[in-house]
């Protein structure tokens, strides 16, 4: 049995191929790699039907990218070698009980080389109906799918399509969020700043930023209630408000008023979405060797001093979004070798004892050679202990 869709005029095929390629690029599916979720669907399809191979294939120009698969390890092949090109070209289910006698498969190497017989492929489409790939089954023995089996295959293709689009959306959101974080460490006037954010999901609600505004170094960290895309949107809004206000802060004494302006800029969004943001903002004045800070419900920052002492930096302010409030700036003198450590509450998921987190973090910082080493150690803990919340750490080293 064979099925195929009617052919299209050349101009129509070229236009459709152009739309399809733009759809693949917009989904960010141009990297030759496997995705765990799609591998899982392919493995289940292979086991369900007892076939030799199952593949979820996306076409990027002349490449066939195996973004999910069962029964083989390849991640890429020439487009011309993949039978799923027939699915993309027809826009419909393509199946054959014996490809060895089916002329459509004469020039397809991945069918001819293993001398495969049975093939069925189902189109996978984006939200606009562009066929970006295919879920297929391949076996060396001729066979037919019953009507009931074909229903199951359609269900699996629907699952594969959902996962494909969800993965693409998550990748775009993750890449966008990463692009909003500082692109490089800060080195200025003896102030060195590095940071990292490890989201619990593809994207998260943690936010951090740093940079110079005139002679002052600004460092901020926020933690939006919740996780995922919704929290990431609020985090981006907080970042935008912070960046708009920072240039207006002329000195450390004006930091409190600056944070109040940040809160006023986002409070309606926070109220409408029923969320809030714990927020810590620090300003370092290298001329006066002074740290100024506002803590709005965070309470997770440490000043690890070169003289061996450690202080938890806290304030009386509530998180942003609870209600409009006065934010008080606090000040501390700085000495060469002091380190300021800003963390989100996801760090509590990776320490051994949450009630003793200050001592654990202090020990980790003092055992580290520099800020980058602190981030490396925290990342290792996050990998080993799998936090359920986003983990963000920013390290500020003062070495004039």
Automatic annotation (TrEMBL):
Protein name: Serine phosphatase RsbU (Regulator of sigma subunit)
A GO MF label: phosphatase activity
Domain PPM-type phosphatase, chain residue ranges per copy: 195-398
Species of provenance: Conyzicola lurida
Pfam families: GAF (PF01590), SpoIIE (PF07228)
Keywords: Hydrolase
SMART domains xref list: GAF, PP2C_SIG
């Amino acid at each position: 049995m064979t099925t195929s869709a009617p052919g299209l005029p050349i101009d129509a095929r070229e236009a459709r191929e152009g739309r399809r390629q733009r759809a693949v690029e917009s989904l960010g599916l141009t990297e030759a790699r496997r995705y765990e979720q799609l591998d899982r669907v392919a493995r289940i399809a292979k086991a369900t039907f007892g076939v030799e191979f199952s593949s979820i294939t996306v076409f990027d120009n002349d490449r066939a990218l195996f973004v999910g698969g069962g029964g083989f390890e390849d991640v890429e092949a020439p487009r011309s070698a993949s039978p799923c090109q027939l699915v993309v070209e027809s826009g419909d289910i393509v199946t054959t009980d014996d490809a060895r006698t089916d002329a459509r498969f004469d020039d397809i190497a991945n069918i001819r080389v293993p001398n495969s017989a049975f093939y069925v492929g189902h189109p996978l489409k984006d939200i606009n109906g562009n066929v970006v790939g295919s879920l297929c089954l391949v076996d060396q023995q001729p066979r037919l799918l019953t009507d009931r089996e074909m229903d199951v295959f359609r269900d699996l293709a629907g699952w594969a399509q959902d996962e494909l689009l969800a993965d693409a959306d998550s990748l775009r959101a993750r890449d966008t969020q990463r692009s909003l974080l500082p692109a490089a460490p800060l080195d200025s006037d003896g102030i060195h700043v590095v940071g990292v954010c490890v989201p619990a999901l593809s994207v998260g609600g943690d936010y951090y930023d740093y940079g110079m505004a005139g002679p002052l170094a600004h460092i901020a960290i926020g933690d939006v209630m919740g996780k995922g895309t919704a929290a990431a949107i609020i985090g981006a809004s907080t970042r935008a408000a912070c960046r708009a206000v920072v240039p207006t802060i002329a000195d450390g004494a004006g930091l409190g008023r600056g944070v109040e302006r940040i809160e006023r800029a986002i409070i309606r969004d926070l109220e409408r979405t029923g969320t809030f943001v714990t927020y810590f903002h620090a300003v370092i004045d290298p001329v006066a060797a002074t740290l100024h800070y506002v803590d709005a419900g965070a309470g997770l920052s440490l000043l690890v001093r070169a003289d061996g002492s450690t202080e938890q930096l806290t304030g009386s302010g509530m998180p942003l979004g609870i209600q409009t409030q006065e934010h008080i700036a606090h000040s501390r003198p700085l000495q060469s070798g002091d380190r300021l450590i800003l963390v989100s509450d996801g760090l509590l998921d990776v320490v051994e004892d949450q009630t003793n987190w200050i001592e654990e973090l202090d020990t980790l910082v003092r055992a580290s050679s520099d800020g980058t080493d602190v981030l490396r150690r925290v990342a290792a803990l996050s990998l080993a202990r799998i936090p359920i919340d986003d983990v963000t750490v920013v390290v500020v080293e003062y070495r004039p």
